[in-house]
Amino acid sequence: MSRAIQGPSAGSQRSVETLVSKLRRRQVVGSRDAALETVLVLRQVVSRAKFSNIDQLVAIIRSVGKRLVEAQPKEHTVGNTVRKVLHHIREEYNTASKGTAASSSKTTYTISNFVLQGQPRKQNVAPKSEATISLKEDDPDDPDSFSRALKPVLMEAIQDVLDELETVYDNVSKNAKDHIHSDEIILTLGHSRTVESFLKQAAHSRSFTVIVAETGPSYKGHEMAKSLSSAGISTFLVPDSSIYAIMSRVNKVIIGAHAILANGGMFAITGSLLAATAARVHSTPIVVCAGQFKFTPLWNLYHDFGALDFADPSSVLGFEEGSLVDKVDVLNPYYDYVGPELVDVFITNDGDHPPSSVYRLIKESYDDDDHEL
Amino acid sequence: MASPESNRFDLHATYRQNLQNHEISPPLAAILALSELVVNSGAGTMFELVQELHDGAEVLKKSTTNPISLNAGCELFIAFVTLFPHESDSFAELKSELMRQGQKYAREAIAYRDKIAELMLGFIKDDSVILTHSYSRVVMKALLHAHKTKRISVYVTEARPRGLGIKTYEELTAAGIPCTVVLDSAVAYVMDKVDFVLVGSEAVVESGGLINAVGSSQIAVIAKAGNKPFYALAESYKFHRLFPLSQYDLPTHNPSILSFRPPQVTAAPSSPSGVSPDHQNEAINGTSSATPAAPSSRTMSADQIACNPDVDYTRPDLISLVFSDVGTLTPEAISQYLVAMFAG
Questions:
Q1: Percent of chain A with pLDDT over 90
Q2: Residue A258: which H helix or E strand, with range?
Q3: What are the Low complexity biased-composition ranges (chain B) (predicted)?
């Protein structure tokens, strides 16, 4: 085709730019909000995009994804959402095009494919009774016919991603009562919405006690404690410094995650590493509640303890301490890196998984060539 | 030496010849040799052909003391042949197709080390200090590749008794990478100075564990104790369907390893036998250490070395990540690939 690969159309370009600047200014924070905003922008991009074959569409989405990821590389869910949308779109495209070009997609059987994919499966080509849409790529007479035919299914695919995000808290909490027993003492920290809804759901059928660590310097634990106690859960608020001392009384540590990495480790709010290490000493189980959109095909490369993401230091040492401010370096990292050996289980919206199987879930939910957007 | 039915084709000689190429490792050499065996075989059915390949693999295995990585290559090729869909018109055509596949794979596989080096690069930060063990082609590739863009310095273990650490030292120094040889017994001493440990592999097994030059296991134990990442590099043709539970389950283990010999009262310490002392001197000269030749009674005799293993098994819980051409994997992920290829 003579048409060059285009970027998103002008209208969607504007919404991309809006989100980019929001991400950059940290007006969108929190992994779920960032993911939601990303899907909405992608939906707009796809609905307005002009393309006449799948590669053009993928290129458009990727270019948008790259802009968003670069705007805020520490908000990992943005990239994850883009990857997930790409994966769904390819899947829809493959099922849609199977009817028209069944023979063309014959994979060659070589030793390297054998290593990658294993034994050749008997491909049971069930004759699809449902009418497949006729797809014609790069139609010179009507370059838009491809996108016109494909768009409805693509919109559905994106809607699936959106639905998953919207129901994530409910789905994570749905088995909450199986994880918490009556009269247990739970330690949590920070204000993770996933954990909050998990505990509240469990409180419908169990009575238990929650100890919330204050989680300085953001003191998000205060909000958490307020919210839990107003839901009728017996709640204690403790300073972070007593986490270790109190651990011997705790039955379970339940915390949230910011991003879950391919090796089963995770980035979680500062203080999580402290709590996890203390829990390990007492062999207290560490349960992490998180939606699968937080699974990130990345590794904790070399910043051992933090995610190299720093918040405003004024909450650690304010400017009223003027005489001190220029004498010390003040760091206020957002996240801790908690290694896979410290986590017992991830409770997700799609089942409970040990850290060692995170890599497999990541392999299933994203396409390998999207790891670098 | 050759299998009886193929007197015109010498499998072992072909294997040796393939190994002459510095880039070709034993599993690839075995795949190439077996693919030539396919076209030279007189087998008329798939069953006969597979049988002949199994016999050929056995011949190759017998010819070496350490068949582990070779075995991985043989098993991969045989599993591939067994499952190859028949679409060819004649059996002869199928055979030549199989040979083409084998050779094509070997050609592709040579580039795997570059791929691994590229994957590894993201994990090496500027000013890293790396500890490596013995000599491994893929580790050399990764280090030399990292050297192009990052400042790295390397400690390498001497890796007695073969002293291959010296080879690593020479190649790295020639490339301008600061490198120091450390004693195998100084690994714990050096560990605190190191950012991570990087080793190659003879094979990666189903448990996610690693088979590599002897000494890797103790380095991994020390790295774990020091809380340092232990990375293994392995091309995917080294994935091997084996599940050793201990060192003594390895196919290389035999009763003479670690055996106790009856004490020989008359053993004259002044007449050491074997090549070891020479080798030792050579190694010392290589590091330009000025100490006079050690008294030969203080070095191991060839008999004593023979009681020691060549390779050891590193448990998966000691390994942080395995870098392979199919991606960066946790040790647990290895079994997924092996099961996909060999099970069911």
A1: 54
A2: none
A3: 287-301
